[in-house]
Design goal:
The complex is a heterodimer of chains A (339) and B (67).
Chain A lengths: L5 H5 L4 H9 L2 E5 L3 H12 L4 E6 L16 H5 L4 H12 L4 E6 L4 H7 L5 E4 L4 H13 L3 E8 L2 E7 L7 H5 L9 H4 L3 H20 L8 E6 L4 E6 L28 E3 L5 E4 L9 H9 L4 E4 L3 E6 L2 E6 L4 E4 L4 H12 L1
Parallel strand pairs in A: 1-2, 1-4, 2-3, 4-5
Antiparallel strand pairs in A: 5-6, 6-7, 7-8, 9-10, 10-14, 11-12, 12-13, 13-14
Helix pairs in contact in A: 3-10
Chain B lengths: L1 E4 L2 E4 L7 H7 L7 E5 L2 E2 L15 E6 L5
Parallel strand pairs in B: 1-5
Antiparallel strand pairs in B: 1-2, 3-4, 3-5
The chains are: A alpha/beta (339), B mainly beta (67).
Family (chain A): Belongs to the HesA/MoeB/ThiF family.
GO molecular function (chain A): nucleotidyltransferase activity; sulfotransferase activity; thiosulfate-cyanide sulfurtransferase activity; ubiquitin-like modifier activating enzyme activity
GO cellular component, one term (chain A): cytosol
Chain lengths: 339, 67
């Protein structure tokens, strides 16, 4: 096989040995949006052996401005992000093994995946999931790399269990979502800057160079020309319920999970049935064809347009309701379709 | 007064005297921000009582959810 990694092996802190280590590692990327696709592409190009990438959403036109693994065809066909990502990653480097997961990452799913992986990359778009990731990472003693961005601002922090403070230490109470991509927008360079920090920290962890880790929280605003790096080690709390002396993992308790979520970056509500189920899209297709709305079926999803609202049904039972941020409105539209 | 925020010189209006004023000035909520004043982190509970002075160096890291 051709050697794709010669230039990386010339980089002394990685070298031949580091390259072998990278090929033996398994990284979990939670989220296949802007941060997730950029992390995935760089890690695959770097020669990481296995990647598991999970996302509950499908590709939308508004993603193409910054979600680098996707193209127009994926948006046209509403391909689930994890599937579209896998296809592109395989084309970039066939030697990497990509596991795709289409669906929500609840506590149960995280318990299945996390023991198998060496490192977790946070590429989610909300605090609720991040707190879950924070707890599960402490539970299995895995390093995870927080990354987030909005507008031209971004930040990153590497959480090493038993060493650094965790996200719970830093945040205390869960913030109500502040600015999101919905309200403030996002430019692609802000994504790439966060990812540059995440991937470099990931490489250090994967080759075992823990000394080189940044250990500070880094943040920047590319438009305002601001940069900051803050030592937060003094914020590690002995009484932290996630990483302190008595660990209770509050976010892993069944079940703090909400059944509806407003998605970042879109006028969209996700509805998840209480029980996991498999939805027969063919049957639903026949039912909805009898209504006044417009129905379109792809191999992965069923789309239903009714006035200004669009409902997208997935096989795993989830439904995305576009055209509203109002959970009540979304539920009533959902109930009109599936009763 | 002039202080440095995230590496940038900033002229503050006279009404800004404490860390909590500064956060208001930037439209930031206390529980979403880590504040470092002259290289020492300021406890969240002390934001309202901690004065800022001309020439201070402040780092503000605020958490966001997007990605």
């Amino acid at each position: 096989m051709e050697d794709c990694f010669s230039r990386q092996k010339l980089f002394a802190p990685i070298g031949e040995k580091g390259q072998v280590k990278l090929s033996q590692k398994h990284v979990f990327i939670l989220g296949a949006g802007a941060l997730g696709t950029a992390n995935a592409e760089q890690l695959v190009r770097a020669g990481v052996g296995q990647i598991t990438i999970a996302d509950r959403d499908y590709v939308d036109w508004s993603n193409l401005q910054r979600q680098q693994l996707y193209a127009e065809e994926d948006a046209r066909n509403a391909v689930p992000k994890a599937i579209a990502a896998k296809k592109r990653l395989n084309a970039i480097h066939s030697g990497a093994t990509i596991h795709e997961v289409v669906g929500d990452m609840g506590v149960e799913e995280l318990h299945e995946i996390i023991p198998e992986v060496d490192l977790i990359i946070d590429a989610t778009d909300n605090f609720e999931t991040r707190m879950k990731v924070n707890d599960i990472a402490q539970f299995y003693k895995k390093t995870w790399i927080y990354g987030a961005c909005v507008g031209s601002y971004g930040l990153s922090f590497t959480v090493v269990p038993e060493k650094t403070p965790c996200l719970h230490c830093l945040l205390g109470v869960l913030p109500s979502e502040g600015a999101t991509c919905d309200t403030a927008g996002i430019i692609s360079p802000a994504v790439q800057m966060v990812v540059a920090h995440q991937v470099t920290e990931a490489m250090k962890v994967l080759v075992g160079d823990y000394e080189a880790l940044r250990s500070k929280i880094v943040s920047f605003d590319l438009w305002k020309n601001e940069f900051s790096s803050v030592d937060v080690s003094s914020l590690k709390k002995g009484a932290c319920p996630s990483c302190g002396e008595i660990q209770q993992y509050p976010y892993l308790k069944e079940d703090s999970q909400t059944k509806t979520t407003v998605l970042c970056g879109r006028d969209t509500v996700q509805i998840r049935p209480m029980e996991t189920m498999k939805r027969d899209l063919e049957v639903l297709n026949r039912i909805l064809l009898r209504t006044s709305g417009e129905v379109k079926k792809t191999p992965y999803v069923l789309m239903y347009q009714q006035g200004p609202y669009r409902l997208v049904f997935f096989q795993d039972g989830r439904v995305l309701v576009h055209g509203t941020k109002d959970v009540g409105k979304a539920k009533s539209l959902y109930n009109q379709c599936v009763g | 007064m002039t202080i440095q925020v995230n590496g940038k010189q900033i002229d503050l209006p006279q009404s800004v005297n404490h860390i909590s004023d500064l956060l208001n000035h930037y439209n930031l909520q206390s529980n979403q921000v880590i504040v470092e004043l002259n290289q020492a982190i300021v406890d969240q509970k002390l934001h309202a009582d901690t004065q800022i002075q001309n020439g201070d160096q402040v780092e503000l890291v605020h958490f966001v959810g997007g990605g």
